[in-house]
Structures are given as structure tokens and as C-alpha cells.
Design brief:
Helix content of chain A: over 70%
Radius of gyration of chain A: 21 Å
Order of helices and strands of chain A: HHHHHHHH
CATH topology of one domain in chain A: Four Helix Bundle (Hemerythrin (Met), subunit A)
Order of helices and strands of chain B: HHHEEHHHHHHHH
Largest interface: A-B, 25 and 35 residues
Chains: A mainly alpha (177), B mainly alpha (336), C alpha+beta (200)
Structural class of chain B: mainly alpha
Structural class of chain A: mainly alpha
Oligomer: heterotrimer
């Protein structure tokens, strides 16, 4: 067996087991912990595939920057509240989960078929670096979605600033009255 | 068979790096204690060995043989896990830090780095920031108010400085045209080729971020001993306690100093006056100077409030680093 | 009502903000201290002599001809030979003490009608070294010496008795009776450690 095959099976087993843990742990801090484990295992899979840039960004953005916000909120929740289970939501989540699963399955199957059509094969990856390949794609083929995404982020940022500002004004009014 | 050889090679190299880092960290504690002592006009450790040279060994023995107390109401799994979660990523940054160019001794080619990924810098950033989960989970698992506040403070600070750090690193990356730490070093030729002359703003932002990430004094909100007893590690004892300062103050600071040296001071480049070992000596000399600078700042400045840190990070450091990217881009385009 | 005056914090100038001048000032101070000589006394190897007024372990002055006039009034009622503790068992020290039970003082009447102090114990574990007993002593008998190493291996050893107190008193008087009463014994030493003090 090759090293990458071993790594693939180990990493995917870790990812799947910790993903199950995310759903079934009653303690929400443990859920977050296994979410981190899943994300890191998936970044390991990216490394295994030779997509180092995506793997590192996966750790940096998903496993740290985003999950830190979850942890920040969740660790302030008292433990007994985190353990409460509402059967109503459990029932409601089943159909949505199924629809989400179908969607993901479609995307991954479609992606499998579509990925062979690009100009970037593993040989080219080795020649030019990973970052260059991603950057070239971003600024040529996917320039429009990239710009749209940046516009959305800008709007979100302005929205956040407005939301943050509003509170301060209200506080001042209350203080004055 | 080839796979086995690769694995064994990497394992041996990693063990050498880890053990070396452990010993280095042990003696960095001695250096810090001596430095802190002399700044306060006292001599520091003096009696164990010549001027305290054996003090780290005595300390290690003391910490290892201490009673390992686990309080009753802590979350046992996370309590144990957290100290490792702080320690392991800090030492994992070493995997991407190159200590020099490959060289040949006795006919064997030795590469003084574990991997040479072409995105080494991002990976270093990622490992560095993942180690703060140790702090946050230590705070949560301790089930006590001071550790909790310490952990949350660290999480709040992280969100601020991590963004500025990422953007500040873009400056040197743009000048070198690569994420690989080796290529960044190779892009800096000669004394006036070091990026510190071209990227002073990025250097200041990165100094700020490293101080915040390693929890050294102006930004040590997570273990502010004046307000929180000892912050996130209040409930820890024995070696589990020992791992936190080892990871954050010594290994973290040392490795991030190495990265700062690679980004701004030309890494292992320097005049060949020490023969074959000259790159190593230059590199460690530079890293040591950088480390001493952090110590100097640590033992000088008072502590910022947590809201002041986030304010500086978002309102000063982030715009500065964006401005730096802007200026660098213009200069690169104009120069061609 | 007390009037509060709010003082604006001085703002940093632009130059100071840009070049971190206040940080650099602080760094300069620590660097100066870094290269200065340390002022530590390496305690078990070097010991500072405390000032004469230092409140260390208690001692008894002995009858040696330097007694205050109050002692000569009481002397004729007491059975004290030269070289023995001049305690007259007046219990004033116990009265003044914030923790009176640390004293154990006993005196007996001899067949010739004179008073003899047979016991004067102090349990120093309870003592807070405030020196009130020394002030209260009418015959200048109970004093405090410059001995500050009071740690012992047994609790019983922390109780001091009359005979060892008079020994300690003799020793202390031999060493330091004639010394002027001042904080630093040696001006040279003080200036070396703390610099010239300017009195206003």
C-alpha cells in the first residue's frame, strides 16, 4: 500500500467518526471539539490530494477563524442548557438533513465529473505552485463570482458597522434621559 | 520499503527537532529568568550550577515530580486534552520552519527542515492560531470563573490580531512572490535586501501580532495575574501546568521569532565567517536577538485592556497592514 | 462635598504616536537597569546588619551598673546578683502585650522577704514583634535585639527563657550598646545602594 492511501483511510475515518460525534455528543463543547477534529481531518485530506493551499486555508479559516466564534458563544452557555434536547427540532431536522444530503451528493458527483475538464492536471500543479493555480482561476475564469463575493462581504461589513453604531446611539439617549 | 524509509527519515528528523526544541525551551526559561532578574536589578537564579546553569533541570524535575492535582468539578477529558492542545500545535510550527539551505556532510545530503511546502507561511499561521484552542478549552474545562474569563479574553483577542497578522504577512509574500519560507529567504539578497527596509509597517504589525499570539506582556490579557489569578491555567498543576508557559512563552515566541526573522531579516543569510555552520549561527543569532527583543518588551510595558487590544487590532493595525499591501502593490507595479 | 477636579490625560503628539516614543522611553529605562549592578543581598552567604532599633528576638538586660534610677528604687526588694537579669516581675510587659498569654512570668518570695523571678518565658510563635513590651518595661530590662533568624525545628524551641534571654542581652550590649542610634550603620554602604538622599 502506498503512504497516501493509508493516510486517506486514516484521515477519512477520523473525519467521519468526528462528524458523527458532532451530531451525537450531548455536551455542545464536545460537539465543537469534534467539529474542529473533522475540519482538521478534512484539511489533511486536502494535503493528501496535493492541494496544500486549500488544506492550509481550511485550517486557518474554518478550523480557527470561524469555529473560534462558535467556541466563544458556546463556552458561555451553561452546561445544563447545552444538554437539553428538544424532540420537536430533532423531528424537524430529519427532512431538511435529507434534502441537504441529496444536494451535497449531487454536487460531489457532478464535481467528480466536472473536475477532469479543467486545464489543471496534477502535473501542472507540480510545475506551477498551488497558490498560482488558484489565483489564475480566480482572476480569469471565476472573476465575476469573485467580485460578487467581495461585494457581498463589503455590504455585510457595512451592515455590521451600522448595527454596531446603532447600539451606541441608543445608549447615549438612555444616558441623557 | 521506500515508504518505510521515508517514514523513518521524517520520524527521526521530527524527534531531533522536538527534543532540540524542548532543550532549547528549557534554557530559554533560564534566559528569561536571568533577563527579568537583571531588569529588576536582581541576579536571577544563581546557586544551581554556575550562575544557575542547571536551574532548568531542577525546574523540570520539580514540575515532573509535583502532585498532579485535578480538581473535582472539572471536565476531566478536556482538562487533560487542553494542555496538549496548546502544546502540540506550537511545536508543529517547527515542521515548516527551515533552518538553512540543504548541505552535505560526509557525503550525506542533510536538509535542515522537515518539509518545504510552498505554502509554509500559511501553515505556520494556521498552526499558530490553532494552539489557542488549548487556552480556550483549558478555561472552559476548569469550570472556574478566572480561567473562563481568561480563555474568553484570549478568543476575543485572537479574532482581532489574526486578521491583521494575515494581511501584514502579505507584504513580504508579494515582494518574494512565494509562500514558501525558503524562497522568501532566497529573495532577500545582501544587507539592504532584507525586507525590513522595505516593509517597516508590516514588521510593526507582525510584532504586535506575535506579542498578542504568544500572550506576552502588553497583551497578556489571558493570564493577567493582577486581575485573574493566573488566568486560564489557574486550576492546573504539575507538568500539565508546565506545558502552557512552555508552549506559549517559549516555544511559541521562539518559533514565531524564527518566522519573523525569515520574513524580515533574511533568515540564515549573512557573511560566511563561521565556515560550514555559518548559516545556522547567523539564523540562531538573529532568532535569539528577536527573542530577546520580545523579552525586553515583555519586562518593560504594562498591560493593555482587552477592549484596547481589539481596538488597536481593528482600527490601527488592520488599516495599516492594508495600506502596506496597497503601497507595496503600487511600488511593485511601477518598478515592474 | 468634596469638589473633584477632572484632569485630561495629556494627549500624545503625532510624532510620538508614529514612532512609539513612549514605548522607547520605557525600553530605555529597562535597558539602563539591565546593565546596572544588582542590589541583591545573597542572603545565606551575605547578611546585612540590621539597624540598632531593629525589633528582633527579645532579650533581658542584666544588672551591670548601668540601670536607670527606677531600678535602684526597686532593687532593695529584689534578690538579683550582678550579671543576672534585672527583671523585677512587674508584669507591665504582659499588660502592654496585644497577646498577653504568650508571657509566662512567675516570681516567689524568699524566706528573707525578697522577691525572686523564677520564670520568664515568652512564646515567640504568638509574638508579632510590635515592641510594646519593650516600651512598657520600667527598668529597661526587656529589649529587642538585632537577631532575625528565628526559625526552629521544634515548636518548643520557639519559647525563650530567662537565662538565654539574659545571655542574649549581654551579647547585644557588648556588641552594640555604644553605637549611635541610626538606620544605616554605614553611610558609604547606603550611598552605594540607594544614592545620595537629599533632605529638604
Amino acid at each position: 500500500m502506498e503512504l497516501s492511501v493509508v493516510a486517506f483511510w486514516v484521515l477519512s475515518a477520523i473525519a467521519v467518526i468526528s462528524a458523527i460525534g458532532v451530531v451525537f455528543f450531548k455536551n455542545i463543547v464536545y460537539s465543537v471539539l469534534s467539529l474542529i477534529s473533522t475540519l482538521i481531518a478534512i484539511s489533511g485530506l486536502f494535503f493528501n490530494l496535493g492541494a496544500e493551499l486549500i488544506g492550509a486555508l481550511q485550517i486557518l479559516i474554518y478550523a480557527v477563524a470561524i469555529v473560534v466564534f462558535y467556541v466563544l458563544v458556546i463556552s458561555t452557555v451553561p452546561q445544563y442548557k447545552g444538554e437539553a434536547v428538544d424532540p420537536k427540532y430533532a423531528l424537524l431536522s430529519a427532512p431538511f438533513g435529507f434534502i441537504l444530503f441529496l444536494e451535497l451528493a449531487y454536487v460531489s458527483v457532478y464535481g467528480l465529473w466536472a473536475s477532469n475538464t479543467g486545464i489543471f492536471s496534477p502535473d501542472i500543479f507540480k510545475e506551477i505552485s498551488n497558490a498560482k493555480a488558484v489565483a489564475t482561476l480566480l482572476f480569469t475564469k471565476y472573476l465575476f463570482p469573485f467580485e460578487v463575493a467581495s461585494l457581498i462581504l463589503l455590504v455585510a461589513m457595512i451592515g455590521a458597522i451600522l448595527l454596531g453604531k446603532k447600539d451606541i446611539v441608543e445608549d447615549e439617549k438612555e444616558g441623557g434621559a | 520499503m521506500e515508504m518505510l524509509a521515508t517514514v523513518i527519515g521524517v520520524v527521526i528528523k521530527s524527534v531531533i527537532f522536538i527534543v532540540g526544541m524542548f532543550l532549547a525551551a528549557a534554557y530559554l526559561t533560564l534566559i528569561e529568568r536571568k533577563f527579568a532578574g537583571h531588569v529588576q536589578q536582581r541576579p536571577g537564579p544563581l546557586h544551581v550550577g554556575y550562575h544557575g546553569l542547571l536551574q532548568p533541570i531542577a525546574d523540570a524535575l520539580k514540575v515532573l515530580t509535583k502532585e498532579d492535582l485535578v480538581p473535582n468539578n472539572v471536565d476531566k477529558v478536556l482538562f487533560y486534552l487542553a494542555s496538549l492542545m496548546a502544546f502540540v500545535p506550537a511545536i508543529m510550527i517547527l515542521a515548516v520552519v527551515p533552518f538553512g539551505d540543504p548541505f552535505t556532510i560526509f557525503g550525506i545530503e542533510i536538509k535542515p527542515f522537515i518539509t518545504d511546502l510552498n505554502i509554509g507561511l500559511i501553515l505556520a499561521l494556521a498552526f499558530g492560531s490553532i494552539s489557542i484552542y488549548g487556552v480556550i478549552f483549558a478555561g472552559w474545562a476548569s469550570n472556574s470563573k478566572y480561567p473562563m474569563i481568561g480563555g474568553l479574553r484570549k478568543a476575543a483577542v485572537l479574532i482581532g490580531y489574526e486578521v491583521a497578522l494575515g494581511f501584514a504577512m502579505v507584504g513580504p509574500i508579494m515582494m518574494a512572490g512565494s509562500f514558501s519560507l525558503r524562497e522568501i529567504v532566497q529573495a532577500q539578497e545582501g544587507f539592504f535586501g532584507a525586507f525590513i527596509w522595505y516593509q517597516p509597517i508590516a514588521f510593526i504589525v507582525i510584532l504586535f501580532a506575535i506579542l498578542a499570539e504568544t500572550g506576552r506582556t502588553p497583551f497578556d490579557v489571558q493570564e493577567a495575574e493582577a486581575e485573574l489569578v493566573s488566568g486560564y491555567n489557574t486550576e492546573y498543576s504539575g507538568m500539565k501546568f508546565g506545558l502552557f508557559p512552555l508552549a506559549e512563552w517559549y516555544i511559541g515566541t521562539f518559533v514565531l521569532s524564527a518566522i519573523a526573522v525569515i520574513l524580515f531579516f533574511g533568515g540564515w543569510k549573512g557573511p560566511h565567517i563561521f565556515g560550514v555552520l555559518s548559516p545556522f549561527i547567523w539564523f540562531f543569532l538573529k532568532v535569539f536577538m528577536m527573542f530577546m527583543f520580545f523579552l525586553w518588551v515583555h519586562w518593560t510595558l504594562p498591560r493593555y485592556r482587552v477592549d484596547q487590544i481589539t481596538e488597536i487590532a481593528w482600527k490601527v493595525m488592520l488599516p495599516l497592514s492594508l495600506l502596506n499591501i496597497f503601497i507595496t502593490a503600487i511600488i511593485i507595479i511601477v518598478k515592474g | 462635598m468634596v469638589k473633584l477636579k477632572y484632569v485630561e490625560r495629556p494627549k500624545l503628539s503625532l510624532l510620538e504616536k508614529l514612532l512609539f516614543l513612549d514605548f522607547i522611553k520605557g525600553l530605555k529605562v529597562t535597558f539602563k537597569n539591565l546593565i546596572r549592578k544588582t542590589i541583591t543581598t545573597k542572603y545565606p552567604y551575605e547578611k546585612l546588619t540590621p539597624p540598632k532599633r531593629f525589633r528582633g528576638t527579645h532579650a533581658h538586660r542584666v544588672k551591670d551598673g548601668n540601670e536607670p534610677p527606677s531600678f535602684s528604687v526597686l532593687e532593695k526588694f529584689m534578690d538579683i546578683n550582678t550579671g543576672e537579669s534585672r527583671c523585677v516581675a512587674c508584669y507591665m510587659c504582659q499588660q502592654a502585650c496585644p497577646m498577653p498569654s504568650l508571657f509566662r512570668i512567675e516570681a516567689v518570695q524568699l524566706p528573707n522577704g525578697k522577691k525572686k523571678v523564677v520564670r520568664f518565658d515568652m512564646n515567640l510563635l504568638n509574638c508579632l514583634y510590635c515592641g510594646l513590651c519593650v516600651d512598657a518595661c520600667p527598668v529597661d530590662c526587656l529589649i529587642m535585639t538585632d537577631i532575625y533568624e528565628t526559625a526552629k525545628y521544634q515548636r518548643e524551641s520557639c519559647v525563650i527563657h530567662m537565662d538565654d534571654m539574659s545571655e542574649r542581652g549581654k551579647d547585644f550590649d557588648r556588641r552594640r550598646l555604644k553605637e549611635p542610634d541610626r538606620i544605616w550603620i554605614d553611610d558609604q554602604e547606603r550611598i552605594k545602594l540607594w544614592g545620595q538622599i537629599k533632605w529638604s
